[in-house]
Amino acid sequence: MGFRFPSLEDLNANFNQLRKLPDTIGFELTNLKKLSVNSNKLVFLPYSISHLTNLRILDARLNCLRSLPEDLENLINLETLNVSQNFQYLETLPYSVGLLLSLVELDISYNKITSLPDSIGCLRKLQTLCVDGNPLVSPPMEVFEQGLHAVKEYMSDRMNNGGASNGSKSKKSSWVGRLVKYGTFNGRSQKTSSSSGAGSRHRHSHDGEAFMPEYRTIDGIASPSYLGMFSPRRLFSSPRHSFSR
User: Are 129 and 150 in contact (CB under 8 A)?
Assistant: First the structure.
């Protein structure tokens, strides 16, 4: 399948029955800035997605994603990545997430992720991290309660100390070299100070970073045409990470 609109900047394919995207999408829609494919039945995203170097927003929530492409580092302009609500299907994130140099918002809520890749600590521009509804054990909950700055510091320390996460140590070592090359990791933890109280629902660090674990409304969920897709059991079957007072 070929695309007749190579200059296309915004592609919205939400609320369909898509099970896969064209393998060549990343090679043909090179000017794409926003790709919205939420509320489909996608099992994976094609490898060519990593060639969308102009992409700024990728919304792939409410699918059946088992994994994400390993080579995400070419998405140098990506600011928002939303892969939330793939529920029991999405269990891990690729280590290359730490090479998304422009990433500001990452939403992985309502999946089955137990551990964040250590490379998360290298996302210098990250301001919002949504992890609600995952059975996370790493970082531990007490780290999340201190805010995003603490999460990034914890992950940086793990990388600096050689802790294992999301794969073998040999695989991880190869990624550390790439992180250093891209200038996102210098081998030392990045310490920041918190300026908010421990009981705050939305936590802010001194440099304006925010940790927002709250569940947010899905676009179009109230539309009568789609109400059947979202049963209460499906939406709330995962454990919640609550930070209320």
Answer: no
